[in-house]
Design brief:
The structure holds 2 protein chains of 2 kinds. Chain A is mainly α. In chain A, about 70% of the residues lie in helices and about 0% in strands. Chain A folds into 2 domains: about 55 residues, no CATH class; about 230 residues, MetI-like fold, CATH 1.10.3720. Chain A has a two-stranded antiparallel ribbon with strand order 1-2. Chain B is α+β, with helices and mostly antiparallel strands. Chain B is built from 9 helices and 20 strands. In chain B, the strands form 4 sheets. Chain B has a 6-stranded mixed β-sheet with strand order 6-7-8-3-9-10, with helices on both faces. In chain B, strand 7, helix 5 and strand 8 form a beta-alpha-beta unit. The chains are: A mainly alpha, B alpha+beta. At the A-B interface, helix 9 and helix 10 of A face strand 6 and helix 2 of B. The site of adenosine-5'-triphosphate has 12 residues of chain B, from strand 2 and helix 1.
Chain lengths: ~325, ~350
């Protein structure tokens, strides 16, 4: 395919060559381009760049609980946060939170997508049902799960009691709380993975499966040799997004556990929130936020690096 | 033995009858070309043989085995898809190995078979590449390679050349014929290109709207088209068809067309009078229409030169247009000039105007 600029030099390109980089036409085009970019640049500036810079800046100061005295302590703040037990345990919680939610979300999402990809009558209804959690907000979903997980009236414990296992204090037992929050989160993420993976499945040409069938491949072999490799870019994309989501989760934790019991669900974002708005340690919160930013940045880069070679990106 | 035999095979998709009561036998080691316009059911026929679709009625045999209901992998066929359906994430070697791997062929044996196929198709230097790093013609050969590695009983090929440019297509056509000669395997080959059909098939089967129209050697189909559809589909430009009324002229019958009469040979006349037809369709191929002292008058409309030949368009007296292919060194023809057209009696085809079937 020809690229948008075309293979042969246009009259305009020829003019550039003659008049150089700063010809009037060139400058005018630049200004036009900047004008077109400015609205989105303004949005980014207000909602992304400014908070990022301000956050890094706040991280250099220590303030008293009333926000009156601000003392510059520089990078010591960052070192202090990095060494603090609270931050390290938050990191650990977030790590396990990701371990519980990301693979499970991927596997379940893929399973549902494979089911819904069958050509059966009424499949559109299942597709709508599986996609529906996308339309429910974190708050609504959390309240719903609060009910489901309720130790005395929740359906989960009802089932456990009936089967003789006995009730579990899902949200109050330090051993179970993170798992319960992960369960809710996995459910919340499911529609996203489902929709993305189903869309990915639908781009795989049917003839590839038919050819494999004729060539003797059974269902498992077709899955391994056609579906998985062809879907790997989509799976990889979902993996990155789910991981980032795990590091950013806040709403469900605020509603279900407020970071407890014994800080067992105190993920980084919740820790930032507590430091900033409950303990009024603006500087500590800002420093943690900058670390979170770096972690997500590094995670994305590492995942891209590692998986790039094993991922097939179209022809 | 690996003939393929269709007995009354019908396949419907909703209201569409994709294949209508197909009765056809592809002989062992034959190269049979299934040809017809787009949507006539060619691909469906292949899919039925491969087992990707099941017929609604009728029986399909491969060799002596009834294959209705048999899984695609157990039918011992290989199919080359129009899109090639290569696996983009596998190298050429892995692609070609795939049918062997699924059948658990041991490693050394696999390497040997892939090596042989690659040798045959000139793919040896490409074994390490991915499909995205190949040209269209090379991809086509990889698809072929994947089909031939395991020596199936029957090859099914669905327009394998349609993604190639004209020059490469002509070359690959010849290579395929050569490959068939070497492998001696039954081939059922689908195309909508009548030139491809004529040049490749040991026999051709012409289909239209799900129904088989005629089966025969290319020359046979060309010389004696079974009906109006075949007459017009095979050959380029298509056969001229003119409606005429049957008249008695002395001892024999003639057909009166606008601008003159076409005499009939005695056996044709016999068929026409036996059916007591008042009208017939007269068909003459452009290459058989001579601008000479013939019995039918016409007016020159336009003459174009294609380099190796000229094509003339002539108007009959009622305005109908007919086309003639002529040598470049013949007399010049002025637009508007009156000419007399003629065709040798053996080149005149007659068809029943009601059914379109051949007479005599
Ligand atoms: N899966 C299907 N569902 C519904 N209709 C179908 C299906 N497959 C084929 N058909 C219909 O059956 C008829 C024959 O289709 P088929 O693909 O066999 O044609 P074809 O001769 O291969 O055409 P082409 O030269 O365009 O490939 C067409 O009318 C097509 O619309
Ligand atoms: Mg087709």
């Amino acid at each position: 395919m020809m690229d948008a600029t075309g293979g042969t030099p246009t009259a305009r390109e020829a003019a550039y060559r003659r008049h150089g980089l700063f010809s009037r036409a060139r400058v005018r085009e630049w200004l036009y381009g900047l004008a077109l970019l400015s609205p989105s640049f303004a949005l980014f500036a207000v909602f992304t760049f400014y908070p990022l810079v301000k956050g890094a800046y706040l991280g250099l100061y220590r303030s008293d609980p009333f926000g009156l005295h601000r003392v510059f302590i520089g990078f010591d703040q960052y070192l202090h946060v990095l060494r603090s037990g609270g931050f390290q345990s938050s990191l650990g919680v977030t790590f396990w939170f990701a371990v519980y939610t990301v693979p499970a979300g991927l596997v379940l999402g893929l399973a549902l997508a494979l089911l819904a990809h069958q050509r059966l009558r009424g499949m559109i209804i299942y597709r709508a049902v599986f996609s529906s959690t996308l339309a429910s907000s974190v708050a609504v979903a959390s309240v719903m799960w609060l009910t489901l997980l309720n130790p005395s009236v929740g359906i989960l414990n009802y089932g456990l009691r009936e089967s003789g296992v006995g009730a579990i204090q899902w949200l109050n037992d330090p051993r179970w709380a993170l798992l319960a929050v992960s369960l809710t989160t996995t459910w919340l993420n499911l529609s996203f993975t489902f929709i993305v993976l189903l869309a990915g499945l639908q781009t795989i040409p049917e003839q590839m499966y038919e050819s494999a069938k004729i060539d003797g491949a059974g269902a498992w072999s077709r899955f391994r040799n056609v579906t998985l490799p062809m879907l790997s870019p989509t799976i990889f994309f979902s993996l990155v997004v789910l991981t980032i989501r795990a590091f950013e989760s806040f709403g469900q934790i605020d509603i279900l556990t407020q970071g407890g019991p014994l800080k067992r669900t105190n993920v980084i974002v919740y820790s930032i929130y507590t430091e900033a708005f409950k303990n009024f340690n603006e500087g500590v919160a800002a420093a943690q936020a900058i670390f979170l930013f770096l972690i997500i940045l590094v995670l994305t880069l590492v995942q891209f690096r590692f998986l790039e070679r094993r991922v097939f990106y179209g022809s | 033995m690996s003939r393929v035999c269709f007995e009354g095979v019908t396949k419907r998709f909703g209201d569409v009858v994709a294949v209508d009561d197909l009765r056809l036998e592809v002989a062992d080691r034959e190269f049979l070309v299934l040809v017809g316009p787009s949507g006539c059911g060619k691909t469906t026929v292949l899919r039925l043989v491969a087992g990707l679709d099941e017929p609604d009625a009728g029986l399909i045999h491969i060799g002596d085995r009834l294959v209705n209901g048999v899984e695609p992998k157990d039918r011992d066929v290989a199919m080359v898809f129009q899109s090639y359906a290569l696996y983009p994430h596998m190298t050429v070697r892995r692609n070609m190995e795939f049918p062997l791997r699924t059948r658990r062929v041991p490693k050394e044996e696999r390497a040997r078979l892939v090596g042989e196929a690659a040798e045959t198709l000139g793919l040896v230097d490409l074994l390490g590449r991915r499909p995205s790093q190949l040209s269209g013609g090379q991809r086509q050969r990889v698809a072929l390679g994947r089909a031939i590695v395991r020596r199936p009983a029957v090859f099914l090929m669905d327009e394998p050349l349609s993604n190639l440019d004209a020059k490469l297509r002509a070359q690959t056509r010849a290579e395929l014929i050569e490959l068939h000669r070497r492998l001696q395997t039954t081939v059922l080959y689908v195309t909508h290109d009548q030139v491809e059909a004529m040049t490749m098939g040991s026999r051709i089967a012409v289909m239209d709207r799900g129904a088989l129209q005629q089966v025969g050697r290319p020359q046979e189909v060309y010389e004696r088209p079974a009906n109006v559809f075949v007459a017009q589909f095979i050959g380029s430009p298509p056969t001229n068809l003119v409606r005429g009324s049957v008249e008695r002229e002395g001892e024999t019958l003639v057909v009166r067309v606008p601008g003159g009469v076409v005499p009939l040979t005695p056996d044709r006349a016999a068929v026409v009078s036996e059916r007591s037809l008042a009208e017939v369709l007269v068909g003459v191929r452009p290459e058989h229409l001579a601008v000479d002292a013939g019995p039918v008058a016409a007016t020159v409309r336009v003459v174009v030169s294609l380099g190796h030949e000229r094509q003339g368009v002539f108007a009959l007296d009622d305005g109908q247009l007919v086309v003639a292919r002529m040598a470049t060194d013949g007399p010049g023809l002025r637009e508007g000039a009156r000419v007399q057209l003629m065709a040798r009696p053996e080149h005149v085809h007659l068809f029943d105007p009601a059914t379109g079937t051949r007479l005599g």
